[in-house]
Amino acid sequence: MSSAATPLLYESHCHTPLCKHARGEPVEYAAAALARGFKGIIFTCHCPLPDGISHAVRMAPEEYETYVAAVAHAREQFAGRVDVRLGLESDFYPGVEPWLEELHARVPLHHVLGSVHTQVPDYRARYFRGNWFDYQQTYFEHLAQSAETGLFDTLAHPDLVKNEAPHEWIFSRIESHILRSLDRIAKTGVAMELNTSGVNKALPEMNPGDRMLGFIRERGIPIVIGADAHRPDRVGDGYAAALRRLETLGLLEVSYFLDRKRHSLSIADALASLPRAASLP
């Protein structure tokens, strides 16, 4: 494959230093997207939350306009070369809906990821009662609830909870709860993410794992790929492997969002669009 292939893919999940655990400015992420043969990049930094909730790992409410301006600057700098868009990764837990409705309405967004972050101390303090299996059930209940709010386009890293206590992740035990959650999600039309950064977590595999991904495919739930880049050199990381994985499972298309509308791209075309180096194992 030629490095001059027509760019088609978007990085649909990446961050900025405002979340306090990422590095590199938006212009650096955009430059990485250009270098890796991507058509565009959608910034989805961790949203501000009310009452100082998980403030150590996200932008403060008063920094939201700074975030919007930084992405706009990158869009201006890369106009005509990389399509830079503004999105958001918004945490879900019951009761946060009014805050997010107002936040999402402030400025036009292109892709809103919904995340249940079980590793965040504030979430754990509310919902963990000492039993990991119960915690896993709570996670998948909240995942389904998040889809049913209508607030999100895509649900991020949808089996993230398994990394909290890998020794307690017994798929056969949690499977029925996952299936019930997916049945509810499928009715909403919300997409689910194949997050390539999972290979760097406690259970080193993309999120979700193969069995859950197979259940997602069976229900016709759209798939969006995201690298969850917290530094520029991870933009687009693992996309070729993710696409081949989806292809092996029998999927024909992958999705991305612009203007909060879902677009589809054939996996064959997506793979062909990547420079040769990115397509090698």
Outline the fold blueprint.
Layout: E1 10-11, H1 26-35, E2 40-43, H2 64-77, E3 83-86, E4 88-91, H3 97-106, E5 112-115, H4 121-127, H5 132-148, E6 154-155, H6 171-188, E7 191-195, H7 210-218, E8 223-226, H8 239-248, E9 253-258, E10 261-266, H9 267-273, H10 276-279
Parallel strand pairs: 1-2, 2-3, 4-5, 5-6, 6-7, 7-8
Antiparallel strand pairs: 9-10
Helix pairs in contact: 5-6, 8-9
Mind explaining what this structure looks like?
The radius of gyration is 18 Å and the shape is globular. The chain is of the alpha/beta class. The chain has helices spanning 26-35, 64-77, 97-106, 121-127, 132-148, 171-188, 210-218, 239-248, 267-273, 276-279, and strands spanning 10-11, 40-43, 83-86, 88-91, 112-115, 154-155, 191-195, 223-226, 253-258, 261-266. The two termini are 14 Å apart. It has a single domain (10-279), classed as Alpha-Beta Barrel (TIM Barrel), CATH 3.20.20.140.
